[in-house]
Amino acid sequence: MASAFMAYPELRHPFASSSIHSEGSVTVLYEGRQVELAEHAAGEALLIRPDDLININGFEVKPEGVCHGDLCIPLTTALLVEQDDQTWFDLTAFADLLEQPYVADHEARVWSFAEIPAKRHNMMTEAMAPSLELTDRQGNIFNITDLKGKKALIVTWSSW
Amino acid sequence: MPVWQRIYEELNDPNFVLICVAEDTGGEAVAGPIFDAAAPTYVQIVDEDHRVSSAFNFVNVPSAAWIDETGRIVRIDEGTYSMIHSFGEGEQAITFGTDVYEPALKDWIQSGAQSRYIQSVETITAQIRQHTPAQRQADAAFCLGNLFRQHGDAAKADHYWQLARTLNPDSVNFIRQNLTLTEEGSAGEQFQKMMGEYVSAGRDYYRPIDIDHE
């Protein structure tokens, strides 16, 4: 075997087994956030409380639609589901509507959502930097879009 | 990392923000010491989920975007080497990188919109990779694998990282990050074989660097 570079072989699988969430909860991953939901009606689709939507992707369920800033997407019967005497919001149907890809591990009850394509539209058509919230090593949170007024170089690297 | 610090200090421009991002599931434990060794004063990010690469559709490191004062990208997705790197001697010698990027960057910081190195909206939007829905789904699979890894489930981590590679075979980042979990690491025989196939298939892991060498 060729000699290989492995900077930190001891860190391949360094983590002890631990629960992702409390028993009965589901976890949603989106934009670097990890949201645990105790109340849900998860099957193949992920049904959540409408009030929880804003904590996941910033959208709010309002009478005029599902809104984020000035953007409002009309509510349809596919998005609001009556089940067990409760009204649920179908997060997976909403993702399908937005053409937002996702991957679910039903056994572990975790849904991981990719970026909403519309949020990258200005980059793909107008070369505008995308909204991207980051946390630096000192714990400061900022968005790439907050840097207006300055030039910025964002450069990736890796240890591997 | 020390070279970027030198460049940042030489520019010494309060209206220039340098953000260096470690695309590394090893997190602070592996990237932190490398950052610290450079005594950096620029912004340092440890990006375990490779979110920056996902946001700009990068497929390899080092890659970069230049963003001007209005928030517009004016260069993107090149092999962003701060210098020419050389390792080994004789027939074993390996050289990679470029010495044209640093002067171009400095020219842009000093000349702004007058710099001949900035590119048009049309050039930039053509340069940004158009990812398919499957390639975008790969980003979600990669994050899911990373969550399982952080919770000690190596089998599921590997499953979803493999899925990410299958969904986005263009991502050298995913190929090499996955290989860090193997005995031979990220630059062994598997890597050489995969990169041979990658290049043979006509894929480019950096856009050609279009900078005149003066």
Tell me what you see in this structure.
The complex is a heterodimer of chains A (160) and B (214). Chain A is mainly β. Chain A has a domain at 19-124. Chain A has helices spanning 53-57, 91-97, 121-126, and strands spanning 26-30, 33-37, 40-42, 46-48, 60-62, 65-68, 71-73, 80-83, 86-90, 102-105, 110-113, 133-135, 141-143, 151-157. The longest helix of chain B has 18 residues, at 133-150. In chain B, helix 6 packs antiparallel against helix 7 (154-167) and helix 8 (172-179) runs antiparallel to helix 9 (189-200). Chain B has nine helices and six strands, in the order αβαβαββββαααααα. In chain B, the strands form three sheets. A two-stranded parallel sheet of chain B has the order 1-2. A two-stranded antiparallel sheet of chain B has the order 3-4. Chain B has one domain. Chain B is globular and about 50 Å long. In chain B, strand 5 (84-87) and strand 6 (94-97) form a beta hairpin. Classes of the chains: A mainly beta (160), B alpha+beta (214). Strand 14 of chain A pairs parallel with strand 1 of chain B.
Essential attributes:
heterodimer, A: 160 residues, mainly beta, 4-stranded mixed beta sheet, 4-stranded antiparallel beta sheet, 35% strand, B: 214 residues, alpha+beta, two-stranded parallel ribbon, two-stranded antiparallel sheet, 6 strands, 45% helix, globular
Shape, per Cα inertia axes of chain A: globular
Kindly report how far apart the N and C termini of chain B lie: 25 Å
Proportion of helical residues of chain B: 40-55%
Mean pLDDT of chain A: 90
Indicate the structural class of chain B.
alpha+beta
Largest sheet of chain B: 2 strands, parallel
Residue-averaged pLDDT of chain B: 89
**What is the oligomer described by this structure?**
heterodimer
Strand content of chain B: 5-15%
Helical stretch tally of chain B? 9
Class by SSE composition of chain A: mainly beta
Number of helices of chain A: 3
Helix content of chain A: 10-25%
Radius of gyration based on Cα positions of chain A: 19 Å
Number of domains of chain B: 1
Compute the number of strand runs of chain A. 14
Uncertain runs of chain A: 1-6
- In whole angstroms, how far apart are the ends of chain A? 18 Å
- Side by side, the strands of the main sheet of chain B go 1-2
